[in-house]
Each structure stands twice: as structure tokens, then as C-alpha cells.
Amino acid sequence: MKKIITILLGVAALLLSGCAPASSAGTVDLMADIRPRQIAAEQAAADTTAFALKLLETVYDGGNTVVSPLSAYIALSMVANGAAGGTQKEFESVLGAPAEELNAGCKAFVEALNKSSDGLTLKTANGIWYNTAGDFKADQGFLQTNADYYSAAAVASDFSRQETVDDINNYISDNTNGLIQNMVDQLEPNDVMVLVNTLYFNGKWASPFDPVFTQSEAFVPADGKNVRIPTMCQIYDEARCFETEDARGILLPYVSDRFAYVALLPSGGVADYLAALTPESFKGLIASAADRRVELHIPKYTASISKALNEPLRQMGLQSAFDPLKADFSALGTAKNNIFIDNVLQNAVFKLDEQGTEAAAATKVELRSGSAPAEKDKPVVLRLDRPFIYALMDMQTGAPLFLGVLDNPELSD
After folding, report:
1. Residues 78 and 195 placed together within one structural domain of the fold
2. Are 105 and 218 members of one domain?
3. What is the CATH number of the domain that holds 228?
4. Model-level pTM?
5. Based on the domain organization, do 298 and 308 belong to the same domain?
6. CA 248 to CA 130: how far, in whole Å?
7. Complete DSSP assignment for 72-116
8. Does residue 69 share a domain with residue 192?
9. Which residues form the signal peptide (predicted)?
10. Is there a single domain that holds both residue 200 and residue 274?
11. Domain extent for 338
């Protein structure tokens, strides 16, 4: 009988209604203790950005695309604690740091995210369930490391019981405010572990769009066939904008300016622009944004995707992990046969309207054992009427929570 580890790597949810302020962090006097955590969080954010841009480039093959790199990054970092040998080195290469640095960086980064306030709630949670009904033996060091760095509680469960499925689904629902439900249909006798990461964000635009000014406007997809799309319009006396020879764009803050929606309109094709975009140039674009008077036209849209990430991750360098003979997950646990990643799947949705942003993502990984300013009366017009790149950004660390490409709003759900 084959053994399967099903790891639900990421569940991310962003809602546009009912902002609840997070708890304020207490005053800390020991700067010597704070600085190392700040450095670790900044490095983790930089590594996340590099991972995010590469993931979007490899996933994008034309059409509407959206991914949640942050949730996947944190969860893959957790799984990396179960890898050894060459497989561990591949995880470290893809994620950008050795395992110990990944753990410390993610811990500090998550703590920074969970301390968000000023009318926004952003929190993460992690959980692990492992099967006690078969011959799989979870490595206690793996479980303890994820508890120490990711606050991931480990639950020993009988996967043959419906109660285990219900427990996992309730955990996901509770930590995403009910946005994602019944993610797990059933567990098979040869499943040995389920790992869940959740990411939850709740907020609205700092300056909502007036629906009165939403009207049908032209949008030109990559295929050149014009479509008419409900398009929001707003004139900002001051909006953070950037412009280079290759692209122009805008940053739209939510109720706390720590988080912003970034729209990036390349001068040429999206694929070529993504191929040339580096973490440094992306960071430079954001840093170059300056206040300008702007008339913005942006489509209302919902983009969704369900995509296997096996091949993109292979292209990024995570190869032996998918090989039944070469994968080394000996630090995760033991089973009769070798453990390897069988499938990585991400479902994501991103909705943008007059009030704000609503988005959700879930990443499932199965491991199997077997063989410049303008004149005030003349605003600069930024019309997002052809394919553009978008991101939901943590402006404090510079890390993207979601990244996507809107190719054709007419094809969105």
C-alpha cells in the first residue's frame, strides 16, 4: 500500500469588509533584541520577493494569472524542515536561504505581519495533522521545529475517521473568517500528513471609488480584440506613481498605508517584461514612486486560477523532491517506501472593486511514498486598458502577498 502525505501549503484570504484593528505591540526597550529580528524579517521579505517574481514568471503562460507567493513561501519553508541531503539543498536554493535562516526569517517576518494595525487585520496560522493509523512515523524534531518557528500545532489523528477531515476544514474556515470551507474532501488510508498554512487580510481602500463614475470602457487584451469592461475612475490630487522607459504604474493604499495595491503597465508585452524584471528593479520601481495628480481608470475584475505548480517549481530548481527515487524527506518521518512530492496545486482568486480587494488562495502539496508632479488642473491620465501586472504589497517589508497578470477582464469570473 502506498503512503501519501497531503500537505495543504497555503490558504490565503483577503476580505474587503469589516476591518478589525490588530492588537498593538507592546513597548520593547531592548533594541539589541529587536534589531536581529528586523534584519531577519527584511531578509525573509527580500527572499520572498525573489521567489514571488520567479514564480509568477514561470506560472504565467498568457491569460489571467494570479498566485499567492507569500503563503506558498512560508509553507514550503515549513516542508523544507523535513528535507535532507540534495533535496534540502534544492529547497534552500529555491527559497533563497539555508534552513536555519529560513526558519528565523519566516518567524520574524510573520511576527511583523501579525503586528499590523491601524484598521487592518493580517494574521497567519499553521497546523499539522499526521496519521496514526498506518506505519508512518512522524519525526518529532520536524514537528518541534515547526512548532518553535511557525507556531504549528501538531495533531496526531486517525485519518480513517471523518472527524479528522472535519477538524482540518474547521481549522481552515476559522482562520480565514469562513471564506475557504471544505477544502479537504476526504483522507485516504495511505495519506500520512496534512500541513496547513493560512493567511488572512481584511481591509478597504483608503480612498474608495465612487460607483457613480464606474462605466463601460474599452480594454485591449493581448489578442488585440477590444472588449468593453466596467471600469472605475478616480482623480487623485496626490497618488504615488512611477514611470520608466519600460513601464508606468500606481500604488493604491488600503486603510493603512502599510499595504497597497500596485498596478504596473508595461510599455511592451507582459511576458518579456516579467522575464527582465528582477527583485532589485521591482524594488526600485516601488521606491521611485512620487506624488502626482492622477486620473486613474482601472477595471473591476475577478481573476482566478487553478494550476499545478510541479513544472514551475522544477524550472525554479526544486527537482529531486518530485523524484520517487531521489527525493530525500527522511527528516520528515519514516515510511515503508521513499517519500516524494507527487503534486503541488494552487487555486487562487483575486477580486477588485470600488470598495477594495477580496482574494483567496490555497496551495496543496501531496507527498507520496512509493517507488514626477503635473499641473493640478491637468492630471496625468493612467488608463489601465491593456494587460498589466498587479500586486498586493506589504509596503513595510516590500514583500508581495499576491501577484498577478490581468490579460482580459472579460474572461474573469
Report:
1. yes
2. no
3. 2.30.39.10
4. 0.84
5. no
6. 48
7. HHHHHHHHHTT--HHHHHHHHHHHTS-HHHHHHHHHHHHHHHHT-
8. yes
9. 1-22
10. no
11. 39-204+304-349
* Torsion angle of C-alpha atoms 234, 235, 236, 241, degrees rounded to 10: 80
Q: How far is Cα 154 from Cα 158, in angstroms, rounded to an integer?
A: 13
Paired sense of beta strands 380-383 and 290-299, if any: parallel
Are both 60 and 176 inside the same structural domain?
yes
Inter-CA distances, 412 with 1, 30, 37, 227, 282, Å = 42, 50, 40, 12, 26
Q: Are residues 194 and 237 in the same domain?
A: no
Please state, in angstroms and as integers, the Cα–Cα distance from residue 385 to each residue in 227, 235, 305, 356, 411, following that order: 10, 17, 21, 19, 14
CB atoms within 10 A of CB 117: 14
C-alpha cell at 262: 500596485
- Cβ neighbourhood burial of 90 (10 Å; 0-12, 13-18, 19+): buried
**Site of grid cell 480612498:** 207
* Angle, in degrees to the nearest 10, between helices 31-59 and 85-95: 90
In a domain, 245, yes or no: yes
How many degrees, rounded to 5, is the angle at CA 37 between CA 31 and CA 43?
135
Q: Looking at the chain, how many residues does it have?
A: 413
Other beta carbons less than 10 A from residue 337's beta carbon: 14
Q: Are 93 and 66 in a shared domain?
A: yes
- Tens-level pLDDT at each residue, the chain (413 residues): 445 555 555 444 444 333 322 333 343 443 444 445 666 767 778 888 999 999 999 999 888 998 888 888 888 888 999 999 999 999 999 999 988 889 998 898 888 777 666 667 777 888 898 988 888 899 999 999 999 999 999 999 998 999 998 998 888 888 877 777 787 888 877 777 888 888 777 778 999 999 999 999 999 998 888 999 999 999 999 999 999 999 999 999 998 878 899 999 999 999 999 999 999 999 999 999 999 999 999 999 988 777 788 899 999 999 999 898 998 999 999 888 788 877 777 777 787 899 887 777 766 566 666 653 344 556 788 898 999 999 989 888 889 998 999 998 887 65
- The tally of domains found in the chain comes to 2
CATH code at 111?
3.30.497.10
